[in-house]
Amino acid sequence: MFKIRKEKSIIGKIDTMSQKLVILLVIPVILSLVLMLLYAGRYHSAIKRMETIANLKHVVSSDIPESVWGIVSGRETVAGSKVHSTIHEVHDTLQEIMDRVDEEEERLALVVADRTMQTLENYVNQIRDNIEEGRSVVENEEVLNEIRGVAALVDSMLNDYIAKEIETTADRSATLQLLILVTAVIEGIVVILAWVLRTRSMRQTAAFVKKPIDRLEEVTTRLAEGTLDARLRETEVTELRNLTISVNTMADRLEEMMQKSHKDERNLRKAELRTLQAQINPHFLYNTLDAITWKAEAGEKNEVIQLTGALSNFFRISLSSGADWIPIGQEKKHIEGYLTIQQTRYRDIMRYEIDIPDEIGEYYMLKLLLQPLVENALYHGIKIKRGGGSIRVVGRLVENMLEFSVSDTGTGMTTEQLQELNERMKEGQPTVSRGTGGFGLVNVNLRIRLYYNQSEGLKIVSDENGTTVSFRVPCRTKEEIAENESFSG
Question: Which tens digit of pLDDT belongs to each residue from 254-265?
């Protein structure tokens, strides 16, 4: 099971961090506001109740006794006065306040005051009854004095309630102050925690963004330096995902283009070398045909047949139907044909030996590697040496590698000539050999490096006793080259 990597957006990370900070900062503020509003509401309710009680005090201690005095003095009747409605209003107001009071002591004070108001109403009713019975004013004045005493008692009770309410409100005010202080401390702690969270989140977000950006910069730098196999790993950052895909796609296409360019360059170099291969020295052909003519005129039939067969084999193998790879046995026949023809001209000065075992003849090699080396040995070693010399061609299979060498006992090269030749081979420009009509050592060296894809080609050792040119290439079978290379059977 492949684990699906969840993408993470930069904006999402910042949004999440902002939400955390807002929640961290807002919740304490909301709580403190709720508590302060609650306490402020209770404080306001207490003030309203005390204001209402203060108004009742005046009604109880002044308005009701004066109304009763008016009745006793005969200025107004019981029915015409509003004493009963006033007492009932006081009773209803006290009941309403009691329903809103939470503290038991305050409620008890109001309950006692309300019951005392009932006593006050009873005294008013007694005065009414006395008037109806025709009793003296003195008796009603005595009851009025009782009413004034009860009113003063209720006023005192209401004062007690106000005192208790003030005490409770003061406690609530102290609690509110403490709450404000605690809230301020909590807010300070929350601000510190928010700052720590913000710093940590910013570092995490920066690392979250910086790491893929650094990787992007690293990969693009490597691509710019030519490391075309550099690729970006899949990123979790949503905003960088498309850029990562685009960079990897660009790198893939760039690598494909470079591979195609390299392949096209190799094919172009091969085409150039094939063109050079076709530039067989015409003098070699002319001289061979002249030799055949001379032999025919001299009546040397066998020599004519031998030279004609050798020339035919030489060109047949040289062309090989356009193939690049031929069996080692054909390459051996090719140099045998070449040396057979040349020995007709240089019989007195040239001797040769070909030591290539038949056991390796079925393996394949790039064609026309040995003949140019033999030609170079003849024209630049044996031919210009007094008394001539010998050429020896050796081929061996060593640890799945083919090792070939062409040695001559010619004049050899000076140190300067050898250095110049090595410089020309290092440059690797395909050119026709100077002074010869065949391929030079430079071209053979380039073909070995190009077709076998190796850094080293020819190795040359030369002194006054002669020159040895050798090379080492991988052993190839017909099956190994059949898919990608043209070959000759």
Answer: 777 777 666 666
